[in-house]
Design goal:
Ribosomal_uS19_CS, Ribosomal_uS19_SF, RNA-binding, Small ribosomal subunit protein uS19
Length: about 80
């Protein structure tokens, strides 16, 4: 179910404060929306097992951090 249209996008205050003085930001918060202040920063987003590094670009604005850190491995069957 999507977020209501009358609500603003969710951005964690802790991440917003860190983006002003850090280049690498490690977070477990996958539901934070990517805003223009994050462009050029590197986020390490937790996927349940490890942290995946994500370099934020302008085409990622409006998406969530969790959309770029996959939680499942691709299934490989023997051929």
């Amino acid at each position: 179910m999507s977020r209501s249209t009358w609500k603003p996008p969710f951005v964690s205050n802790k991440i917003l404060k860190r983006c002003h003085y850090k280049v690498n930001i490690r977070t477990w918060n996958r539901s934070t929306f990517i805003i223009p202040e994050f462009v050029g920063k590197t986020f390490e987003v937790h996927n349940g097992i490890m942290f995946n590094k994500i370099k934020i670009t302008t085409s990622m604005i409006g998406y969530k951090l969790g959309e770029f850190s996959f939680t499942r491995k691709p299934c490989m069957h023997s051929g």
